[in-house]
Design goal:
15% strand; 2 domains; homodimer; four-stranded antiparallel sheet; pyridoxal phosphate (chains A, B); cysteine desulfurase (chains A, B); seven-stranded mixed sheet; Aminotrans_V_PyrdxlP_BS (chains A, B); Aspartate Aminotransferase, domain 1; alpha/beta; 388 residues; aminotransferase (chains A, B); Aspartate Aminotransferase, domain 2
Chain lengths: 388, 388
């Protein structure tokens, strides 16, 4: 099997990830912050160390400014629901995943907020020049994906602030598709929050994720979910210090222990090397794709300004058929259909058809790429009657 | 090490739990409901099978009426925030965990709801007879823990509906401390929702949990967190069918695969046998405790109407000292301090001191119990100067 659905969830993971999850479950993942026994303290240490790794990765001011959530979706909901107040206006883009669009639409339907969306060009790059027209006195936040889950397009989120008249507007980034592939930091990218998932580029298990946030944003937010934190236990009020303010209930300790191993793997390899490898594979792939007129790529046609998520359609095969054939005939796992980004499909002209998404991961090899290209070539030739 | 903090998180787990989590991570936990490839479909199957097991356990009408959340805290927040509307009144009790009290208090502080709390007797049993005085025309829900996390007291939640004038009030149970130890079902206990955690009595990994709900309650609720569901991908609106209505983002597939193994273990052993074992251990323990005047038990003094969570204080040792000594001198892991249930501590007279909580699990043995008793006896004798 050749796995090329890494934008959904990465696989394989470094062996240390599953080994550590296993050991954590075997040796006893205690309940961090609950009691002072060895098992509980061991778990607290796991959370603290992983927070430290994520703090460095995302340039958070303190480990406590890294909040664990079960998914990037939970992280984005916590950020939006915890920040936005009646009358607020939000700017986002047509390239967003439903994890951003649906919370915004839900808040709009309830009459709490209004929002406007930046458009995108034919490569899926958001039209930042539209920002000044969309900004209003009541604009409270801009929320944008760093990389499109559909087209792989890298968005210029670091340039958002300079386009805003009101520099106090909060800028939130959805780094679901970029964390672990590209640098993204609160400081370097001038952001107030970075929402991340553990199970994609960071190579951790599913059920991990969260967000890093600035102190400025924290001061403007209230908790959404509240409950036991193991702190201020005698109070009926949620503690207002980080990370407890946003972390109630038992954390996924074994998963977070595994996530730390994924992050360590990435740090040791370095984002530079990861990026260089991906660009090399991308260049080969794009070159080959350009020789297959049966296939239309929807997204950046060069390796710059993208990660290796490729959205494509076939002239004579619908996406489900193409994906089915890739899996059945060639053992290549890709994703077909709609990719939880309805307006991005509209912007890219694939709203009626859906698309095939092929996404490389950290462990995609040149051999696999050659097999993929050969498979696509065969599929196209069969379609043109050149093979039986 | 003798682990007696099972009310925080159970340990050990059946070997199949960690084995399955490991295998799931190794073999590829795909992204369920996203695409139709083998990896994604395999993960969908894991969720469906686990839903089926939980449906049976909690008597849900359909597997879809079981919703996965990362913790019982997330489940309780989703239930309360999804159900309650401005002006609603809620009845709960002083015996609740902060995972219920803090969301209620938070909603009250925001001016959305009001709530009243049932009191408790000296064994921590809620005073159901107070219900008629607390019920109001605007009462929308009663939310109660099935078993107290502090005292282990089993609450008569199955008798709530008969005490209510308005039979349409929704009854929600927090089964964090009972699921996997005692039967609790939507039908048998006349409930509208059961919130559960995976990592305690159900023997699954941390990061798993959720709720089972009736169709009637579902019809009255709206989603809280929204986002990608892999369904209705072209719509900006959260799907209104179960389980997608309440499940956005990637689930903790490996964790849920492990949870299924925990539930299977319990089903094979049977709740009857688990209960019988626990009652036998409890009777021995209570008998021995009654011979130690240094120790005051706060909770039911008989094995009936409780699970083996024991909250206690020492005449001459504070709880942290006692717990520290148990761990250092005898290798026994317990929890000391406050147990995220402030009003329960008040009701039990341990608000000033906190308590030591000793909680047995599925794998607590008679040998361990004997060692515990011996340790407590030694601790008490040392305190009275009868030993060096």
């Amino acid at each position: 099997m050749i796995y090329m659905d890494n934008a959904s969830t990465t696989w394989k993971k470094p062996p240390a990830v599953s080994d550590t999850v296993y050991r954590s479950l075997q040796e006893g993942a205690g309940n961090p912050g609950r009691g002072a026994n060895a098992v509980s303290l061991g778990s607290s240490g796991i959370l603290l160390r992983t927070r430290g790794l994520l703090m460095e990765l995302f340039q958070a001011p303190q480990p406590e400014n890294v909040i664990f959530k079960a998914s990037v979706t939970d992280a984005l909901n916590t950020l939006l629901l915890g920040l936005l107040k009646p009358g607020d206006h939000v700017i986002s883009s047509v390239m967003e995943h439903n994890s951003v669009l649906r919370p915004l639409e839900h808040l709009k339907q309830k009459g709490i907020i209004t929002y406007d969306l930046l458009g995108a060009d034919e490569e899926g790059r958001i039209l930042l020049q539209e920002l000044p027209q969309l900004e209003r006195p009541e604009t409270r936040a801009v929320i944008l994906s760093h990389v499109s889950n559909l087209t792989g397009t890298l968005q210029p989120i670091e340039k958002v602030r300079e386009k805003l008249k009101n520099k106090d507007i909060f800028i939130l980034a959805d780094a679901a598709q970029s964390a672990g592939y590209l640098p993204v930091g609160l400081i370097s990218h001038d952001l107030d929050a970075i929402a991340f998932t553990g199970h994609k580029g960071l190579l951790g298990p599913q059920g991990t994720g969260g967000f890093a946030l600035s102190d400025r944003l924290n001061a403007a937010m209230e908790p959404v979910f509240t409950g036991g934190t193991g702190s201020d236990s005698l109070s009926l009020h949620q503690p207002m210090f980080l990370p407890d303010k946003f972390e109630s209930g038992t954390q996924n300790v074994a998963g977070i222990a595994g996530l730390a191993e994924g992050i360590k793997y990435i740090k040791e390899l370095s984002l530079d090397i990861i990026r260089t490898n991906h660009q090399r594979l991308t260049e080969v792939f794009l070159q080959e794709l350009s020789t297959l007129p049966e296939i239309t790529l929807h997204g950046p046609a060069t390796s710059a300004g993208r990660v290796p998520n490729f959205s494509m359609t076939f002239a004579t095969l619908n996406p489900s058929e193409a994906a089915f054939r890739l899996e059945q005939d060639f053992g290549i796992i890709v994703r077909s259909g709609y990719h939880c980004a309805p307006l991005a499909h509209k912007a890219m002209g694939t709203f009626e058809t859906g698309s095939v998404r092929i996404s490389f991961g950290h462990f995609t090899t040149e051999t696999e790429l050659i097999q993929l290209i050969q498979a696509l070539r065969t599929l196209c030739e069969v379609q043109h009657g050149r093979l039986p």
